[in-house]
Amino acid sequence: MDLGNKVDTEEGQQPSAVPLIKPAETSERTQGDGLGPGWKFWRRRRFIVASLAFFGFFMMQTERVNLSITIISMTSPRSVNLTNGTTILQTVQLCLLLTQEQDFHWDPDTEGLVLGSYFYGYIMTQLLGGWLATYIGANKVFGVGILGAGVLTLFTPFFVYLGVYVLVAVRVMEGLFLGLSFPCMHSMWSTWAPPSERSTLSAVALSGNFVGMCGTFVMSGAIADNFGWPYVFYVFGGMALVWSTVWFIVVKNQPKDDPYISLKEKKYIQDSLGPETSATVVRPWIKFWTSLPFWAVIVIHSCDNWCTYTLLTELPAFMKDNLDMELTASGMITAPSFLAMGVTLMAAGRLADWLVTSGRLTTTQV
């Protein structure tokens, strides 16, 4: 009996043919969406969305971290050439007595106020971002958040000369805009990501944060040392405007709204998520707030953010004041750790999906 094409049958029954599965068909079945090998991500609209979200989070970090680096250049003493050709190294005292070449004379308390003001706004719009994403679309909220902060970043060199409290107000507003970004992205994946790929797509997007931290440290130091600190804001603000334009043109809130998504991929996503329902969702808020695992996640996430943002905010100044390192050199030393975090996050997301879909672990265990 031909074992490749027929199966055993009971006596008196005709054998039925079993079609052979060709290698190409196996590849498509293994991927699940019928769009070919999984590494060809550009064929899949959901991975294009994830890639643009990656660069969106990248821009988010450039808008957040840039001041932590440029403030050193803005307030540090520097060498001044006098009219007779003599060169003096300014200190704060010399600057006050001899010249006003140093841009800003901020004491440590003022610097702390400026650097911390971003987070006053950032913490206020976290819940608002999730709510707005549900009612007006996650793609709109995410794009507006980064666009608004980008415009403020672009004009920061103008605002800073109006006074320190004007700069504080601008940074609070940037925090208000960027505070919308994280929660609305979770809403985006609820409609774009099949359950078997949700960790992978989320990890690709969120890794842009750490790569953005890496890029900001390297680029800000180099730009400030070679062209002056205002150009850090001009470059990153301009990049945010370009990214926002592409995002609004390309990304739609749901697959069904995207005119360029293939029918295969749209069906694959919709089938994996199940039928839509118009039933009102009743959220058990009391159970949320009295759940120990819920509070455990809040505590862990708060501790992680505290450590990460403290490093982002204070590390450049520490390396300049205590290790006497130039901005470019400190950026090159600091950046690899954040890059490693981004790579690890992407690998962990793919691993998490594989462990769940293979049945080795549950989502809770992962």
Automatic annotation (TrEMBL):
The chain crosses the membrane at residues 47-72, 113-134, 141-162, 168-189, 201-223, 229-250, 332-352. The keyword Membrane applies. Keywords: Membrane, Transmembrane, Transmembrane helix. Residues 49-366 form the Major facilitator superfamily (MFS) profile domain. It is a multi-pass membrane protein. Pfam families: MFS_1. Gene3D superfamilies: MFS general substrate transporter like domains. Residues 1-33 are annotated as: Disordered. This is Major facilitator superfamily (MFS) profile domain-containing protein. It comes from Periplaneta americana (American cockroach). The keyword Transmembrane helix applies. Its main location: membrane. It is found in: Membrane. It comes from the Eukaryota.
